[in-house]
Amino acid sequence: MSLQSKYSNLRKELLSHHPSAFLLAAQFVLLLLYAVFDGSEGHRLLISAFGLVVLLLVLWVVTSSTRVQWAAWIIAVPAILLSLLAAIFDHPTLIALASLLEAILYFYTAGTLIAYMLEDTTVTTDELFAVGATFTLLAWGFAHAYYVSLMWDPDSILNTSAPGRAPTFLELLFLSFTNLSATGLGDIMPISAPARVLAMLEQFFGVGYVAMVVSRLIGLMSTMHKRQKQ
Predict the structure, then answer these.
(1) How do residues 129-158 score in pLDDT, each as one tens digit?
(2) Distance CA 142, CA 31 (A)
(3) 9 within domain boundaries
(4) Domain count of the chain?
């Protein structure tokens, strides 16, 4: 068996285990790590290392759900390399560039998953996992975008629960999830124009994504009932 055949068989075997489910589970594990170790400098590298694992899973998901794989590699490889360098050297410029590329990668992956979910008229198990994974990808993408905004303008996002202290990435992720889900708790507040535009865009995408998922499920249920009556 040739090396290409072995790679093809291995790829098919891995894809049969629902890559979206692995990504969703890894993101939840990363949230738990943030909950346990956030603010602890000694565990920064552990969280960064697991964050790189999540990025590799993102790359796996996006290359398995899109035919334009070269675009995913062009975005993902620099993002992973910069994230690795940022984890090692902890330099603000490296962190900002890594966050920018990670945001682009997360948004691109979310877009490919949405296209993947809409390309047929059936709902598979992997597509159900993709629904949750897409939501978390959007949340992480906007969190990285907020982080870039914060690095660009340290006063762009206000931490009302701890005045005078810049929000941590976990707090920006919290802001992202509350905006995307239209919860809006308000203790982390965008106050500059670019940050507020980001917040408005996230609210728009959050409402639009939920509406898309609900309308698709209703449409598929209607189609299924029509087929049963025929």
Answers:
(1) 888 899 999 999 999 999 999 999 999 999
(2) 16
(3) no
(4) 1
